[in-house]
């Protein structure tokens, strides 16, 4: 089993194409099904600890995988039962069904078992389960000690995180060959439990991958505060938000943080504070400029944003500044020589780019291309997209991040990494998102944004 981090993500169409390429190289549908089924069975055998297993099989190739699983587990000595929606429809599924010599129960009347394997429907589903299958699946998952989905929980769309009706939450999803978008996109991801990838002998490649631990080296022996990166934070109407971003930047590895704001708390004293002035933005030592946390949306805020857009350094645009980006300012973003990273949540994204259609991945890609900027489309799932470039998906974050100020902390963390590597904005955005999530993981629950900013020290030190 392979964890998700750093792995390619394939849509349903891409997965079909990848399987077709494997068949062109000599595999068959039956051989791929056999690999998949035996790989799932090996995991179930290890986790079942001798307990009885119930395998639910659908009419397609996912059901065929299930029949292979059942036969392999029975051959290994486990007590296995199979229930199905009906007869298999595809040739490979029919062949797999022929390899199962036990009885096949009716799904509507099936009794639960301690270990449940859901092989009803996997990649490519486009509709809800019928009421009989949905009720039986829910009942069996609720009664199981361990519930395992093959590829995707039945009732989940592959590409956009959509749920087709009521879908129970599984303990484990064993995805075949590659991760799929709905393993990370909400709300479907919340039904997958732990997700692990099983090798079925295909070559999965994609420009869309899961977020991985970044490779941020520690400072070298010749490092000094400016070589580590100077971050400037533009404050405004709510100075506390800018101060959070400033502390986060320091604790994420920046060597020097300049907070350009009036008023507000003074700690930590390592932050250099000065009143805002347009001239301060022209300091050539600034590696990254962050604007938006607590900026406000009045005339003064607009003026500060215009000055920031004209500054020569890389720029992180967050919060209030995103709401001030009209068509004129978006044109300025596109025309900048220095990199721009934008960090909208869903409300800010919709206000700036429109509600749109397609998956969160599709929308983030389109926004990155339109703005000519790296987009961090944040939320319970986060999509990071570069213009005409790669995409990374971060899975479910700590739900305690749903508190005021955590977005300001993220902006500061991204700014710190960007200041140290201004030529690589996409990688900086990915690293900042990872640091933010790791800090939240370390402190656990019931935290506030101030705690999160402080926890970035340990998160950065872990690399």
What does this structure look like?
The structure is a single chain. By secondary structure, the protein is of the alpha/beta class. The chain folds into two domains: 12-209, 3-Layer(aba) Sandwich (Rossmann fold), CATH 3.40.50.10260; 230-461, UDP-N-acetylmuramoyl-L-alanine:D-glutamate ligase, CATH 3.40.1190.20. It has 14 helices and 17 strands. It has helices spanning 12-24, 29-48, 61-75, 91-98, 131-143, 239-251, 299-309, 319-323, 327-335, 346-353, 360-371, 406-420, 425-443, 449-461; strands at residues 53-57, 80-84, 104-106, 115-119, 146-150, 172-176, 194-198, 208-210, 230-234, 256-260, 272-274, 286-291, 315-317, 340-342, 374-377, 382-385, 391-394. The strands form two sheets. A ten-stranded mixed sheet has the order 8-17-16-15-14-13-12-9-10-11, sandwiched between helices. Strands 3-2-1-4-5-6-7 form a seven-stranded parallel sheet, sandwiched between helices. Strand 16 and strand 17 (391-394) form a beta hairpin. The longest helix has 20 residues, at 29-48. Its EC number is 4.2.1.136, 5.1.99.6. It catalyses: (6S)-NADPHX + ADP = AMP + phosphate + NADPH + H(+); (6R)-NADHX = (6S)-NADHX; (6R)-NADPHX = (6S)-NADPHX; (6S)-NADHX + ADP = AMP + phosphate + NADH + H(+). This is Bifunctional NAD(P)H-hydrate repair enzyme. Its cofactor is Mg(2+); K(+). It comes from Sphingomonas oligophenolica.
